[in-house]
Amino acid sequence: MKNIRNFCIIAHIDHGKSTLADRLLQITGSVSDRDFQNQVLDDMDLERERGITIKSHAIQMEYEDKGEKYLLNLIDTPGHVDFSYEVSRSIAACEGALLVVDATQGVQAQTISVLYQAIDNNLEIIPVLNKIDLDAAMIDEVEDQIIELIGCNHEDIIHASGKTGEGIDVILDAIINRIPEPKGDPEAPLQALIFDSIFNSFRGIIAYFRIFNGTIKTKDFVKFINTNKEYDADEIGVLKMTMTPRKVLSAGDVGYIISGIKAAAEVKVGDTITHVERPCLKAIEGFSEVKPMLFAGIYPVDADDYEELRNSIEKLQLNDASLTFVPESSVALGFGFRCGFLGLLHMEIVQERLDREFDMDVITTVPNVQYLAYTTKGECIEVHNPSGMPDPNHLDYVEEPYIKGSVITKADYVGPIIKLCLDKRGTLLNQVYLSTDRVELSFDLPLGEIVFDFYDKLKSISKGYASFDYHQSGYEPAKLVRLDILLNGEMVDALSTLTHFNNAQSFGRRMCEKLKELIPRQQFDVAIQAAIGSKIIARETVKAVRKDVTAKCYGGDITRKRKLLEKQKAGKKRMRQVGNVVVPQSAFLAVLKLD
């Protein structure tokens, strides 16, 4: 055990974590030149296309130092705030962390947030100043920011470049000398924490674990404490570039277990594995249950695919434990699921993965956050979608979730950013100058307001310099109304939204205008209305496609033409009574991009 080191790489998005991991793998010879490609651990097509890490990836490296062999277990983590649950699980499986800071951008919001998580878990922090080879690097300035943040000395900060490989050997020395060896007793009863899992269509579910105490051998009879299920360990091994089987793994090791599990519900991330004959006394405290930030309905395009969609979401949930779902039904869309996501990017990635990995065509409804509705009888109801809101005559008041957000930006953009937050019904709490031209702004904001386009607007206002991080702070009373969209008097429940009373009028008008562009013209007039309760607040009409029935009348009396037009009008009227409006999928998505 004294030669094992478990560590993860944490940083803000785009600070060079995956490139640094590439260099570590190359120098330790863990990846051959033939198999190497940039960001070698990002094995999902989506990760490569977007240039972001979505999943944390564990890999084992072997390194020789002063004649001794060391096993280094590295976990590369995502940097985006929507995937912060991946980071918290990686931190729970490690003793140390490389805190990577971009020398051209300095300390940013997610850097601070992730660092606090690591300190809470008593990890040894090794600060690394990355991208020092770039002309724009502000080495001294960023060093001062790091020292102010974690209180280390100048000589503790390692200067490196993931691109050129400079300083990588210093990082490896620091990992061996500064990160403590894993604690644990190989002779004690088995205690292993599951921190991730994947589904393999041939071998069933593969769980990744970190052993804290005890030893596990191939063919051992093991039990998963949370689900109380018992299995044979058909194969165990370590995670290298490919899975490498081993006969024995003991305390401090990170590895995988295959036991032919087919049902996704039987493996829970955060569960503890132990032996059936000699079980441990208590489970390891996993990680805090993830709380979704926004909810959206996911429905199959074809109603017959409902069961297939359930299976696909269950398999996806194995690999993405922050996704939650419950069944629900909609008048307009039939049966589907109400899913909980950590943010808009997370929702987009889940939708994309369902399409690519499971070939599922889905419709996603307007995202909502979770509100608390209090009735006149004193009951408290959790409202995840607008149709769950009680009738106005039974409703006493509604509370909406608030977040504490921190924005770190250059001093030039402070004015527009404060205006953006105030427009989103936010309150400025604090303004701290971290250096002469870097400011940290703290806000109280309603979560519902930042769900849609806040992040995009923040990036465009600050020319990409502002970084944003948030956590939920509680609920506060709010004047919310349910805005319904009616097509020819029929309510389309999938387009309903909960919005603040002050924004309802303009939001309703913009939605009606947008739907008028998107709904194809029918043989009859289509009235698009936005309503709050029984009060119509906006209306647009999609005019009917009309055949020129008077084309054959040349000259003659006007009454002949009028007779034909009246006949056509009567036919249109009858058609409208039975007419059913077709709403294209783009209409459901358009609500997200109203601005």
Could you explain how this protein is built, in words?
- The protein has five domains: 4-178, Rossmann fold (3-Layer(aba) Sandwich), CATH 3.40.50; 191-275, Translation factors (Elongation Factor Tu (Ef-tu), domain 3, Beta Barrel); 294-367, Elongation Factor G (Translational Gtpase), domain 3 (Alpha-Beta Plaits); 372-478, Alpha-Beta Plaits (2-Layer Sandwich), CATH 3.30.70.240; 485-491 and 504-593, Alpha-Beta Plaits (2-Layer Sandwich), CATH 3.30.70.
- The radius of gyration is 29 Å and the shape is globular.
- The longest helix has 21 residues, at 558-578.
- The strands form six sheets. An eight-stranded antiparallel β-sheet has the order 11-10-16-7-8-15-12-13.
- It contains 14 helices and 31 strands.
- It is of the alpha+beta class and 595 residues long.
Structural descriptors:
single chain; 595 residues; alpha+beta; Rossmann fold; Elongation Factor Tu (Ef-tu), domain 3; Alpha-Beta Plaits; eight-stranded antiparallel sheet; six-stranded mixed sheet; 14 helices; 31 strands; 26% helix; globular
Instruction: Provide the CATH topology of the largest domain.
Output: Rossmann fold
* Quaternary organisation of the protein chains: single chain
The number of E-state strands comes to 31
CATH class of the largest domain: Alpha Beta
CATH architecture heading of the largest domain: 3-Layer(aba) Sandwich
CATH superfamily of the largest domain: P-loop containing nucleotide triphosphate hydrolases
Major sheet: size, sense and barrel closure? Answer: 8 strands, antiparallel
- Rg estimate, integer Å: 29 Å
Strand pairing plus helix content: what structural class? alpha+beta
Question: What number of structural domains do the residues give?
Answer: 5
Ranges with pLDDT <50 over ≥5 residues? Answer: none
As a percent range, the share of strand residues is 25-35%
What is the share of helical residues?
25-40%
